[in-house]
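re: that chain from earlier
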Amino acid sequence: MRSLKIVNGDISFDSLGKLQWVEDINLIIQSLNLRLKTELGELFYSEEYGHPIFKGKITEESLTIFLKETLFQDERVFDVEIVEFIKYENSAKV
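^ sequence. v structure.
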């Protein structure tokens, strides 16, 4: 199975202007990445697709539950093992 390659929310083209495709493990990675970036109900044509809006205090336990619930929506995912959380501090100034 294959699908169009999506980069930053847009369909991707190569240097010759041809559509790019993803397949195999790269397709699964792209699919999960898109699901994690889409809020549940955001797509009017698929209200069941996406992640639930995260509520409450973010802890490793709550984040683990959130990630697993979102990833298990994809029927190709049978198990999720979270090895490590890395704290990222956004240094962007507003």
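The first helix runs from residue 24 to 37.
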